[in-house]
Sequence to fold (187 residues):
Amino acid sequence: MPRCFWCNDDPLYQAYHDEEWGVPSRDPQHLFEMLLLEGAQAGLSWITVLKKRERYRQVLFGFDAEQLAAMSDAYIETLMQDPGIIRNRLKLQAARKNAQAWLRLDDPVALLWSFVGGVPKINHFDGRGDVPAVTPEAEAMSKALKKAGFTFVGPTICYAFMQATGMVMDHTRDCDRYAALQQELRP
Fold:
């Protein structure tokens, strides 16, 4: 099956590409998880985070924002010893800070989706060189999230988040998922 240029032959990566990436999500739990994981990915490859995703779910309370918001410094120190996750103190502290910020939002799902007008933006890119790393919408999302108290939410992270959660559909035309998702997402 032809896939996007970034998807390698790892079965975990292929399943993520084929079943999750680019599929619109309005599930607050999933959106929060993906926002934190995209932040954890900063400076690393997505496959690194993807391979650690299940362990993150275990040690970060299933990405329950209330439990993460109350995470103690001592627990963060314990997590720093866990080889199953990315042991970066700033990123772990960001998970707590972002959970606190998430809980302060009236409607995080509506806020996040507002940057694409509430509906998925379907792009029609031919290949790798056409897919941007940042868009004005991602820059606006980043600015709004930072203002709300989030960290590790720069414009590149926000655009990757938008792609992952189907706010934008960036499967390229040469990818098998492009036609299927374009058909599903048509109004």
The CA atoms of residues 44 and 137 lie 23 Å apart. The two ends are 26 Å apart (CA to CA). The beta strands are 121-122, 168-169.
